[in-house]
Amino acid sequence: MLAYVIRRLLLLVPVLVGVSVVSFALLQLVPGDPALILAGEEATEEVLTRIRQEYGLNRPLPVQFLAYLRHAVVGDLGVSIQSRQPVSTLLKQRFPFTLKLAFLAILVSAILGVVAGIIAATNRNSPLDIAALLGSLVGISLPIFWLGLLAILIFSVRLHWLPSGGSGSPAHLVMPALVLGAASSAVIARTTRASMLEVLRQDYVRTARAKGVSDRLVVYRHALGNAMIPILTVFGLEFGYNLGGAVLTETVFSLPGVGRLIVEGIFARDYPVVQGALLIVATTFVLVNLLTDVAYAYFDPRIRYS
Amino acid sequence: MRRNTALWLVGILAAVGLVAGIAWAQTPVAGGTIIFAAGADPDSLDPQNTQSNPGEQVNRMMYDNLVRFSTKMQIEPALAESWTQSKDGLTWTFKLRKGVKFHDGTAFDAKAVKYFFDRVLGDEKPFKASLYTPFVQGAQVVDDATIRVTLKQPFAAFLFRLAHSAGGIPSPAVHQKWGKDFALHPSGTGPFKFVEWVKGDRVVVERNDGYWGGRPLLDRVVVKTVKEDASRVLMLESGDADLILNIPPEDIPRLRKNAHFSVDSISTARALYVTINVKKKPFDDVRVRQALNYAVNREAIVKSLFQGNAEVISGIVAPLQNGYAKLPGYPFDPKKAKDLLAQAGVTSLKAKFWSPKGRYVKDFELAQAVQQDLSAVGVDAALSTMEWGAYLSATKTAPEQTDRELFLLGWSPSTGEAQWGMFPLLHSSQMAPKGDNRGFFSSKALDDALDRATSATSDQARLAALSEAQQVIIKEAPAIFLLSPNMVVGQTKKVHGVVNLPLELTYFTEKSWKEK
After folding, report:
1. B36: which chain A residues are within 8 Å (Cβ-Cβ)?
2. What is the ipTM of this complex?
3. Are the Cβ atoms of B199 and A93 closer than 8 angstroms?
4. Is the pTM of this model over 0.80?
């Protein structure tokens, strides 16, 4: 197992290099000049030249990329064109926040989704099942953006229970986590239901029931463990998505997260910020996938890594 | 006592009580924190390096300039109490306010002003240096409270350049200490001191007790970055923000109905217009350009699209730009438009029409309205949009490298005066890609008038030359002139004394206060 984990960690290096190359290339292909965007409409030619010089934007692309790599391997991710702050500082400020939010969201979606999925599976074709299916369909279809604004309208403006945006206290994370979690929970509910249905059909479940094992033990001890593998996969994917793709939630709730950093960086053609953020997100995604794979082995002892 | 007397007494007491109550409610109280939600994060808190409005408005709370703008865009004294100009216009002498201290405790004096000029003229080359370098020779200390500034040539709008946000005087001691990192440790003479800046989230400033204009009434101002328009409005409604900027027109009626809030629609110095690429046929024919101007029904657009939150303008200069001349523009006359097009030999015209989306209030919808008006006179304008960063670059390329014909843009001279409202856009020396003359317009008459306005030594001469320039522009129609959008600011009624400068800058002063 250890050798397996180490091998997977070593694979991080080519992944990160690949991410760097692709993000660099894509960013350069997009039309638009970061100096012009930073300086605004009233910029003079001197100011634009100065900005370009300061950030080395005039150099040939391969030179720029290699210089970037050279600095990145020692941890220097460059300086943001928009805010003049070191990218690593920006990421240090915002990434923990995104991690917190993504984690909370997965917790919410796990509780909501798995429970709903189990209820649906164990009460197949009953009104509960249909309600759960419908609920998850609505959850997947509703735009997260709209859901967020609605939540603010109800819980902040009308009820004054929660703050409407920003950060600073645990209360600020409640609505965003719920909104993000609700969207993910729909997918998890469906996956749980399908997986549970598959498992509940198995012979060993029938045997357990014949043995006289209580329904609850059958479901939670025997069935759920075996049903977990597809569900874990979805957890991993959703967590990864929330790390970099929660930009809509972050925008609506004005959260200082990495998703917004990336999107705003793209609009401003802030190459160092986007590249640095993508590296972090890619790293975390790889690690989460590794954790998921290791977790498979925990849930299914038949799986062995070497 | 008799019933009538009693009634009278009650009435008088009630009236007195009412008046006293109103007076008490309107008496400024000290203390309180204001939360202010803006749509974007400052790019810098170093006035000589700040290039966008969010940063400029925070700077205006922390720094003072030699002179400043009143809300009507007139120049008033600030750190300079009075000034004189030599007859040849080359020397300006400023008498400075005494007893002023920077936030770090060091004294404000002529040496600090000289430090400011040396900085913008020197090797550091801060981003906003080009506001001063073409005209300013240098500054000399006469005595502690007097500074003399010499210019390379007479420059009529010099005071406006000093009133620009980039003219905020920083503390020399703090700047020397932090150098490149000065933007993260701002220090000026303003009514508020820097506390913290969490990038992408908020800037916090607190009261400067020793402020020369008097101890500020507010304790703190928190400027939050809230990108999403709808979220800002919800923040105001939930009480999480006391003041918000840039309210979408659809939300204005709802907020107005609420007795807790007031919504102010304020005229700005910004002009919105459709630049015409005069190098593309048939737009090189002035009759065609004039026809396009006659085709647009500006009044209807202001009324229905902007719901009155904008003003029709006849040219490219908005009324609040200092030096604006009230001149007749193009009335809505589709028949005249068709006639002119026929005269120019243009029967059915196909044009490329570009517009940004979301950069200016209702920009794309404005372009659609103009497109409709144009099609009514036989001009088929194909409207397309692109993301702002790409748009900026695409509209600035050289004439041989572009196929742009009509494109929507906005301009607000950050110096607040009309010379800067016309020169960068239409002077022949400012052609894109180097300058902002993105339609490649050139007119000797305009160049002359603008040059005279730039070097005028008297206000009279300056205003006359500017008026002439505006007349030429209207006549030659290098753009489809449209309107000046208002800035819409929403606040709770508890907040008083907000400054809404027509440069689309909103900030607080020592006189701002909040009811408990």
Report:
1. none
2. 0.79
3. yes
4. yes
